[in-house]
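EI: anyone free to look at a 98-residue chain?
SC: sure, send it
EI:
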Amino acid sequence: MKSIKFTILFIALILFSDAAGSQKEKVSRNFFFIQITDPQLGFLGDEASYAKEKLLYTKAVEEVNRLDPDFVVITGDLVHNNTDSAKWSEFRRITALI
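SC: here you go
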């Protein structure tokens, strides 16, 4: 197993149920959200790895769309170098596909 750390994309799928209502009628509300953490585009620095990072993040976004959550939360490092406008543009482009 290679020891190279690739960008970690964790997708946490959490389903919550909440019930509320009066004695006469009970209303049940469900919502479903996805958390993506640490896409960190540009972490490895070279172009071949960056292409793979973009591909992995794109696949994660495709899976989010397939699951059709009520909302998505993205946490952690979004891009590796926060001054790299090209990486930010690519992050925004891929994220906008959700």
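EI: The helical segments are 47-67, 85-95.
SC: 👍
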